[in-house]
Amino acid sequence: MSMLACITLQTAVAQDQTKPHPATLPHPEVEPALKDIHATIAEGPFEADWNSLEKYEIPQWYKDAKFGIFIHWGAYSVPAYGSEWYPRQMYINRDRRGDNFFQHHIDTYGPHKTFGYKDFIPQFKAEKFDAEAWAQLFKDTGARYVIPVAEHHDGFPMYDCAFTRWDASEMGPKRDVIQELSEAVRSEGMKFGVSSHRAFNWMFYVRDESFDNADPQYADLYGRPMPFLFEENAWDYQHNFTPQDEQFKDDWLARSCELVDKYKPDVFWFDFGITPKHGDSTYLNNTYAEHLQKFAAYYYNKTTAKDSDLGIINYKFNAFPESAAVLDKERSKMAEIRKPFWQTDTAVSSSSWGYTQNQRYKSPERLVNDLVDIVSKNGCLLLNVGPRADGTIPEEDQAILKAIGDWLKINGEAIYETTYWKTFGEGPTSVSTGHVSESKDKPFTSEDLRFTTRDNVLYVHGLKWPEDNQITIKTLAQGSDLYPEEINTIQLLGFDKELNWERNASGVTVSLPKDKASKFAYVLKVTQ
């Protein structure tokens, strides 16, 4: 090679190194997708502004359903360590809730440069995944809707995504998990939704030059290696959340609307990343607001038809006006009745959403009581399970779901298609209301009662069976302003014999049978 040719080649290589890697540039499919999105918004009837979106009305099926299943399943189920935040914490040399994921990763898999999160994906094979079996289990549990995670913070969609090569249809399982679940769930008569946690992918992966995630060629999985992600305090996203830029938000919008088009979800659940300042942000000052408005207008316009229900958006904190979508509280509840309908999302495990070894499981009794408490306050419960990497749902998860299903078979009429009453209940035990605060909850007592109603029937839920087999409902006392009507009958669901009861100025005292009519909470059906 001549000296001139050699110099020319070296110059070309140097220039190439200064160019952005293609994986860091906007995906070529995003721009045409945005054009289609804007065209759909222009068609109406909903416009991409809060005044228009506040005309939204929640479909009745959702208010009636009360109980749904959430599914956290992804490549994070391969390491099965700590929690579904393994992809983030494996790059942070700090303890999280007693576990040092960083050191565990090095000890188990080696340095991050040679074995990063991306390297778990080939091991995520889902070889035993059976969507129909899952759907049958959820149906038997008594769920009325099912919401799998379509994309978690890790940036690995569980569906056939047009905007990245890193998805479950091309890698790992090499199956469109969301499509399979949508068909199976709907064939069982349940509603189907999806969740998107993608907005936090922007800040999810802390970077270091010694990590694989610093390499721009993997930006379409880990996100672009932005300078702020290399800073010493990058792990502290709650105090150092750099707002997403337009490239990221446009990509997010294209992906979100693709989910609407491909799977026609009845519910679309969003995690906290759509509010960079979390609890301090409102829909009026949120830097994500414009894109949220566009998505909502697109989704609502796509589901506006005479033969279908409007889609439902679940949001956290103050990302939406309360009448434009449905508030979701994570591992938390309401202290009183909230008249705008709302939802709690929690899990059968108190330690993780995704599958891990050594899960700390909740009891079915606690979860049934949570369901009752939430429904009495005009809410619904979205309960999560975490399947293993091979696609099987752990036996412990299944046993919990079966126990809840058995309870609902007896007492479901006091849950489904009911609404809140004049007061949510009575008794000494309060519940946690702050974000992710359920660990502070104390067990309910036999004095804790909750009310639901339907067709002039009042259901009284006792959250713990009294030791003396007797309960006094103070709210129903003779002359009560809340229940001035005469009581005709009181029945115990699941018990086919008459009960002895007496009403006076102190309340209605009911003598219960010696044997429980059902496990966990019991329900008294009060008719006029």
UniProtKB/TrEMBL annotation:
Residues 38-413 form the Glycoside hydrolase family 29 N-terminal domain. InterPro entries: FUC_metazoa-typ, Fucosidase_C, GH, Glyco_hydro_29, Glyco_hydro_29_N, Glyco_hydro_b. SUPFAM superfamilies: (Trans)glycosidases. One of its GO terms (biological process) is glycoside catabolic process. Keywords: Glycosidase, Hydrolase, Signal. It holds the Pfam family Alpha_L_fucos. GO terms for cellular component: lysosome. Residues 444-527 form the Alpha-L-fucosidase C-terminal domain. Its EC number is 3.2.1.51. One of its GO terms (molecular function) is alpha-L-fucosidase activity. It comes from the Bacteria. The keyword Signal applies. Belongs to the glycosyl hydrolase 29 family. Alpha-L-fucosidase is responsible for hydrolyzing the alpha-1,6-linked fucose joined to the reducing-end N-acetylglucosamine of the carbohydrate moieties of glycoproteins. This is alpha-L-fucosidase.
